[in-house]
Amino acid sequence: MKFFSVTDEFTKNPQLKEEELNHLREWISKQPHLPHITDELLILFFHSCYYRLEPTKVTIESYFTLRTHSPELFTKRDVELKPVAEAFKTISFNVLPGSTTDGCRVIIVYAKRLEAEFFVLTEFIKALSMIIDMLLMNSGTFNGLIIVYDMKGFSLSHVGRLGINMMKKYVYFLQEGLPARLKGIHTINTVPFIDMITSMTKPFMKKELSEKLFYHSVNSETIFEHVPKEIMPIEFGGSGKSIKDIEVDTYNNIKEMRQWFLEEERFRVDEQKRPGKPKTESDFFGVEGSFKTLNLD
Fold it and tell me: Transmembrane stretches, by residue range (predicted)?
């Protein structure tokens, strides 16, 4: 499957320098525990860290280690498997066409099936990771990522299905495991008990991420200060494409990448080859690990 053009990235990003990519390639070659990293992914890493070499190395390490030690989230990412298919039937994931005025891409997420028993947090995170990977591999670099969660229909029964350990992995995925510049996480139609959810994540959420959280009340139009009406779906008060059409396009793109997702599972850390002591899951999720620092503009 053909993804974004590496050549185009050099035209799009004057800060992207071949000699610095070579430096990163040489560093990777001396890390026996790391897998092969494609030029596409390397460019995404470098861009996400604002072309700073040392933070890029930390991000690469965190990205692959996170995926290695979270197999429940990053294996079997296959739409032909029932749990993944059910996640996409329960939750609507939508990559909006176009960008914000400052070049950010937007993902809108909302529940199609409101019964709490259909909501499985592990499969939700897995599906979201697939959506973000698909967006990155198809689009290449962009200025920033905005995620919008519509909480309409979200109930206390859903809160009971979250689980502290998986919420911790979800936060680490967002603040450590994205080769993208996360600019904002917005909730619209915010429920009154949102504090119960944020209190679950605040202990292991970095200040840089907590400052990117925005809450918009029911019937509020403040979301349009961040996502212009021109690209917002008409069902959400915008003048953009119908959310139903966007969902179909998004899901079709995911299905087209099925083979890529299956092959991606091979690219993980080999802990037996890690210089020094091998890392374990508890090294990263049992205590505070050494993770990427989010960039602030």
Answer: none
Mean pLDDT of 244-271: 96
> What pTM was computed for the model?
0.93
SS (H, E, C) 120-185: CHHHHHHHHHHHHHHHHHHHCCCCEEEEEEECCCCCHHHHCCCCHHHHHHHHHHHHHCCCCCEEEE
For residue 97, how many other CB atoms are within 10 A of its CB? 15
Burial 129-160 (b: 16+ CB within 10 A, else e): bbbbbbbbbeebbbebbbbbbbbeebeeebee
Whether 203 has a pLDDT exceeding 80, the answer reads yes
Tell me the average pLDDT across 217-223.
Answer: 94
Whole-number average pLDDT of the chain: 92
Name the CA radius of gyration of the chain, rounded: 19
Instruction: Write out the two tokens for 33.
Output: 């525990």
Q: Which two tokens stand for residue 192?
A: 């009154």
Domain boundaries, the chain: 1-69, 82-258
Residue with tokens 């990293």: 37
CA–CA dist 108, 146 (Å, integer): 9
As a whole number of angstroms, the distance between CA 272 and CA 133 comes to: 27
Q: Six-digit token pair at 3?
A: 């993804």
CA-CA distance, 211 to 293, in Å (whole number)?
13
* Residue 92: pLDDT over 80: yes
Options 2.60.120.290, 3.40.630.30, 3.40.50.720, 3.40.525.10; CATH for 82-258 is: 3.40.525.10
In the predicted structure, residue 193 carries a pLDDT above the cut 60: yes
Res 292: pLDDT = 40
Percent over 90 (pLDDT), the chain: 80
